[in-house]
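A favour, since you know our structure tokens better than I do. Could you add the entry underneath, on a fresh line?
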Amino acid sequence: MYIVQIASECAPVIKAGGLGDVVYGLSRELETRGNTVEIILPKYDCMRYDHIWGLHDAYRDLWVPWYGAAVHCSVYCGWVHGQLCFFIEPHDNDNFFNRGCYYGCSDDNMRFAFFSKAALEFLLQSNKRPDVIHCHDWQTGLVPVMLFEMYKHHGMANQRVCYTIHNFKHQGIGGVQTLWATGLNREAYYFQYDRLQDNFNPFALNFMKGGIAYSNFVTTVSPHHAWEACFTDIGYGLGHTLHVFQDKFRGVLNGIDYNVWNPEIDRYIPHHFNQENLEGKAENKKALRDRSSSVTKTSPSSATSVA
């Protein structure tokens, strides 16, 4: 299969948490199993450019419809530890991804609404037609919405979307301006409980809820976490929505990358160990304690001042 990942992170070039690890590790595993995988990311000014090989122009004149006009973007291509990645850079006064940070801006909802729109526009204009578009967390929750409501009418009717939720706490809240910016427009249509209307705030759109409602399949990080999201506070108010779409919601247990998280070869620990010989684990614990003790003793705050 041909799979395109659309995400706000991919370790190690863009990593704020576990999302980046999953996007990179899953992409590599899917390729190992014979699939073709590409990753679409924002081109942040603060990402780790030293982890990108062969960065070059891939699509210079991407025009993304936005607020009834269009924003000029460039798309760059490079390899992140063997994974083919495309980075979208808009050229406008909003400087969506030239903020010195990945998240935490007051307009994050608009930043990632634009990224979602730009990713789909790039697929459309470059004639990429993946079998599966795999989206992650609230930042790309509008991708399946726009694919179903807009882009399927422009030659992208055969693409299917898998939407993975890594963190239910952050759901992406927007207002009517999001609709007008992206071209979805129909306020009364989307502000309905079975579409994008937030479950508790009738005047807000919920990006994550849109991703759940419009995608073909929804996953989270484990079967138990899926149960928690449906029946406990872990779902942060989306329990009813997940119940409505329970036929397409499953928990898929996250794995780990043994090339990174492997105590037999980890270059960041002083003593290697494995399941047959755990002595190195105790030695690492002792080394960590010794290092912590040494730092405490030499810290200026712990030194006795002399008058």
